[in-house]
Amino acid sequence: MDSCLRALALASLLCIANGARLLSSNSVFGYKSADGVSLRDEARGFDNFMFVRQWPGSFCSKHACPLISNRGFHFTVHGLWPNYKDGTWPQFCDKDYAFDEDQISDLLNELRSEWPTVYDSYEEFWDHEWSKHGTCALDVFPTEHSYFENILELHRLYDLAAVLGRAGIVPSTETVYRTKDVANAIYNAYGVRPLVHCYEGELSEIWLCLDKE
Ligand code: U2P
């Protein structure tokens, strides 16, 4: 279990880039929000994305999670977050571009299974992720639909369960895996170091840095 905590101390984080070119490095402890910036103030744009997947099983073994199927034994999307190299990030960049579920009606079935919330409202979760992060990525994803659609595609492309499965790391309530082995399996597949986060000593999230392309 302490191996899980040790993973948070990973000093460097490299981005998945076109042609496997490795980009920047950031310290996970450096993260803080650049509160209240508007898109206009952020003319410099952002530097890369943090692609965050969750493993709801750890949280949902202790909480009700009414919308999570299969006991949460499935990697799901938390979000795709624009980030700056200095470890800060923009948020809530366009308060006029409100989340509208009708814009993504063709994606809802997949979103419900691949981007569910551990709480009790899908819409609140998607609204939050769009308003906080999606509105800061309009130069890459100019519409709400393109943001959600592309994230689902990235989720299929970077299939964590497949990568871990190939390294013999499979869902279990009994086997304990070393965080180092989880991180190495992902590093061997993609050539970048992920951040592995835990909830009360169990896997909660895997963060991958992606470049803007
Ligand atoms: O890590 C705790 C919460 O901080 C927000 N976060 C963290 C790193 C980052 O690069 N960007 C960012 O927004 C996340 O908040 P949320 O999107 O869940 O509101 C993260 O859960």
UniProtKB/TrEMBL annotation:
- Cross-referenced CDD domains, in alphabetical order? RNase_T2_euk
Print the keywords alphabetically. Disulfide bond, Signal
Spell out the InterPro entries in the cross-references. Answer: Ribonuclease_T2_eukaryotic, RNase_T2-like, RNase_T2-like_sf, RNase_T2_His_AS_1, RNase_T2_His_AS_2
Q: Where is the signal peptide?
A: 1-19
SUPFAM superfamilies associated with the record: Ribonuclease Rh-like (SSF55895)
Quote the Pfam families the UniProt record gives.
Ribonuclease_T2
Does Protein transport appear among the keywords?
no
Q: Which Gene3D superfamilies match?
A: Ribonuclease T2-like
Which family, according to the similarity comment? Belongs to the RNase T2 family.
Please state what the protein is called.
Answer: Uncharacterized protein
The organism's taxonomic lineage, starting at the top: Eukaryota, Viridiplantae, Chlorophyta, core chlorophytes, Chlorophyceae
